[in-house]
Design brief:
Radius of gyration: 11 Å
Number of strands: 0
Structural class: mainly alpha
Largest sheet: none
Length: about 40
Amino acid sequence: MDQDLDEDPEPLANPQKATNRAIRQLQSLGYSVTIAPANA
């Protein structure tokens, strides 16, 4: 699995960054990803 150049060594320290990384991975697989506000 390839690593992002901006990969956070401690992804749990920055949940938003970890989420963005996961979204990019899904999009790269062809998924359409929509972000919903956490407080919706």
